[in-house]
């Protein structure tokens, strides 16, 4: 890790942390509602998301790569939805925007310097 963390990386890490926290809350609510297995899975995904966000805060290139893979999968899912469900076009476009912005922010020249 070299230098100060760029704002874009901080923004992506904050969004990931918030997403993880919301996934944990959703998992707890699912468990309260009787969906034990789904609740546990949601909570595990939430904990992993928070760990990855902490890695981003700390300059872990592995966390950046894992986040990029998840973003690419989200974009691919959105493209698939655009092709297979034309009625969902704008929803799919909207779902692809944040991961695309996240990818761009994680691979700027300042971010590349930070993660080295």
From TrEMBL:
Q: Which UniProt keywords apply?
A: Membrane, Transmembrane, Transmembrane helix
Name of the protein in question: Integral membrane protein
Q: Which residues cross the membrane?
A: 7-32, 38-58, 65-83, 89-107
């Amino acid at each position: 890790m070299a230098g100060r963390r760029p704002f874009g990386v901080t923004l992506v890490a904050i969004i990931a942390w918030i997403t993880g926290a919301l996934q944990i809350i959703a998992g707890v609510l699912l468990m309260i509602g009787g969906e034990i297995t789904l609740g546990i899975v949601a909570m595990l995904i939430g904990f992993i998301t928070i760990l990855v966000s902490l890695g981003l805060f700390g300059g872990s290139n592995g966390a950046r790569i894992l986040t990029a893979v998840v973003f690419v999968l989200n974009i691919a899912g959105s493209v698939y939805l655009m092709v297979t469900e034309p009625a969902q076009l704008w929803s799919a476009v909207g779902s692809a925007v944040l991961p695309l912005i996240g990818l761009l922010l994680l691979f700027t020249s300042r971010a590349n310097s930070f993660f080295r």
